[in-house]
Design brief:
Elements: H1 3-26, H2 28-55, E1 72-78, E2 82-85, E3 89-91, E4 118-124, E5 128-130
Parallel strand pairs: 1-4, 2-5
Antiparallel strand pairs: 2-3
Helix pairs in contact: 1-2
Length: 137
Amino acid sequence: MTKRVLLMLVGGIAALGGLAAFLVLQGLDAADKWSSVLSLFFTAAGFVLTLVGLFARGSQQSADHAVTGGSLHQVRNVTGDVVIRARGGTVAPPTAAPAEGQGGGTQSAHGARTAGDLHQIDGVGGSVRVEPPAANP
């Protein structure tokens, strides 16, 4: 456990203990009124945090612990066309700038295991073509 997590855990326990002691000292009727007011604020804070989580998505791409039998391609917010070749990599236009309004949250492949290629594609303004491997004569 890191120091930050430990400090947050100790701080949270101390805050809950302090709140419990405060409510006990207030008496039953006053504690009931206090808990009603506090629940309103905690509910409002939870709603705001939910909205932030829904709309404030990062632009991360992650492939932690991914094991592939081929290659791994993560493509996001390309204004032109994308061609993924089996043995050669990804080809995108040199002016691949983020397209407005395209793409979204994070792409993740945590713990993924594949027997072939792994493609994560999001927010491409043109076409995407994944070419199969060329047949050997």
